[in-house]
Amino acid sequence: MIIGDTKPLEEILEMIEGRERVLVLGCRGCVTVCNVGGEKEVGILATTLRIARKKAGRPGAVEERTLERQCDPEYIEELADVAGDYDAIVSIACGVGPQFLSERYPDVRVFPGINTTFIGGALEHGVWAERCQSCGNCLVHHFGGLCPIARCSKSLMNGPCGGSASGKCEISPDVDCVWHLIVEKMAKMGRAEELEKVWPTKNWLTSRDGGPRVRIREDLKQ
Amino acid sequence: MKAGSNLEKVLEAGHFAVTGELGPPRGNNVEEVKHKASFLKGIVESVNITDNQTAVVRMSSVAACKILIDEGLEPNLQMVCRDRNRIALQSDLLGATALGCKNVLCLSGDHQRFGDHPEGKNVFDLDSMQLIAMMKKMRDEKVFLNDKELDGAPAIFIGAAANPFADPFSFRVTRLAKKIAAGVDFIQTQCIYNMAKFREYMKQAVDRGLHEKVYLLAGITPLKSVGMAKYMAKFVPGMDVPEELIKRLSGVDKKQQAAEGIKIAIEQIQEMKEIEGVAGVHVMAIEWEHRAKEIIEGAGLLPRPVVD
Questions:
Q1: Are B292 and B43 in contact (CB under 8 A)?
Q2: What is the pLDDT of residue A183?
């Protein structure tokens, strides 16, 4: 799923400064699962903003709403009758939300209430880690199910660099060297020899480097 | 002969080779490059010019290489994958060889997070293995990475680094073998302090017959003080400084530690000469270029052979 982080309260307060009627808008997709932009977080953020604004003697109302998804025009449309009533919408969906809202409601000021950080999963309750860089050409099965593109700090395809020490990456002792994990995993699986292959240069065209990506599925298009 | 560089000739002739290293200045100070180069002239086959090492911005390695050539030294152009994509790497290689560079060292590059611009975006379009393969292709097939013909192909002696002390140890010789498969001509290792572990690494390499496929130069960096030894042991990832070395340096008076460090380096070089598969030494006297001669001379490696 897409993981996000709440923006600092001061930053959000600055965004809505002078804007009387504010809507905090959540999303029931990824950001609900990673506890940063669902209905519960909408409630927390709205309450916090109300208290902060009241304390600062600022007038205005902060309302709450959560859409099924903010990455689908169908759900964005649900705001058609009310969007124009707000002086600001703070979307706490991933980066797609504020953009879809801005496109559909060009006259309304839309602000991002969270920072979209990465595609990852939960390691345990409250801990998420990056697992995919959406390079557009998945190769994880060659590396014991571990992605060197997303998880190696240098996206190396041919083994651990000289900075790998005691299973950790040179950038920080808090970061696992994924190549260390790959080497160990492949050895355990009896597939160590496969790592002798010299991987040729990667075609990054399928990645963001090829420009913004659009996927057209003719079979689904109406 | 692939490039006809001095380094290649000396190695081909079977001599125990010696290379040095020079870090370009943190500015465009030409005199500083010339000053450092003056200490290395005539005592090494070729001088590595680092490419923004430790991700700290310095004068371009291509430019510093040209200054060295003009001073009558042979440079070894270091190129890292951190800052340039395949377009810039190929372009810079063509430019550098047009200026007379004949040796090049392919590296992944230290991550910018511990450099002086940690907020920067990195590239890593290629990794060091792919950089080696790309250069070999340009040299041997006279084409770009995309198979389009070159108007003048680079004659280069292709090098790469190896760190026998990084983890996982079991993969280190495999990685060396991969670099050879990718097309590398010579290897310069990272600083070696743990001789026992290095011997084990070399044994594995020799068992695989890798020493017959590549020239391996063992990395030697003199320890200037016990402080430096402790710092490297503790804070430099992938560096293995045994406790006994730290003890040895601690055992001498502070004023004598530099001399002791040089003595250790000389002893190491003597040992390296006897290790099967070691074709030479890469003396990295970091910000200590003026002491390099003492080490190389002390190891009985002067004068350097002249090979036509």
A1: yes
A2: 98
Question: Within an 8 Å CB–CB cutoff, is residue A144 touching chain B?
Answer: no
- Among chain A residues, CA nearest to B123: A154
Domains in chain A: how many in total?
Answer: 2
pLDDT of residue B238: 79
Q: Which of A157, A178, A194, A198 to mutate to test the interface with B (most CBs of B within 10 A)?
A: A198
Q: Which of A83, A118, A153 is the last residue of a domain?
A: A118
Q: Which residues contact A219 (CB under 8 A, 6 or more apart)?
A: none
Claim to verify: residue A55 and residue A106 sit in the same structural domain: yes
Q: How confident is the model at residue A168 (pLDDT cuts 50, 70, 90)?
A: very high
Choices 3.20.20.220, 3.30.70.330, 3.40.190.290, 3.10.20.30: CATH for B6-298: 3.20.20.220
Q: Which two tokens stand for residue B44?
A: 């090494």
Per the prediction, chain B carries an average pLDDT of 97
Q: Out of B126, B133, B237, whose CB is closest to A163?
A: B237
What is the pLDDT confidence band of residue B1, given thresholds at 50, 70 and 90? very high
Q: Are residues A148 and A186 in the same domain?
A: yes
Task: Judge if A167 and A78 occupy the same domain.
Answer: no
Q: Within this chain, do residues A138 and A173 fall inside the same structural domain, yes or no?
A: yes
> How deeply is B115 buried, as exposed, middle or buried, from its count of CB atoms within 10 A (0-12, 13-18, 19+)?
middle
Chain B residues touching chain A at CB-CB below 8 Å: 81-82, 86, 108-111, 113-114, 122, 124-130, 133-134, 145, 161-163, 166-168, 170-171, 174-175, 177-178, 181-182, 190, 237-238
Could you tell me how many CB contacts below 8 A there are between chain A and chain B? 108
CB-CB neighbors (< 8 A) of B167 in chain A:
160, 164-167, 177, 180
End-to-end CA distance of chain A, in Å?
27
Task: Supply the range of the domain harboring residue A61.
Answer: 2-118
Q: Before A112, cis peptide (omega within 30)?
A: no
pLDDT one-digit tens code per residue, B180-218:
999 999 999 999 999 999 999 999 999 999 999 999 999
Chain B contact for A116, CB < 8 A? no
The pLDDT assigned to A83 comes to 98
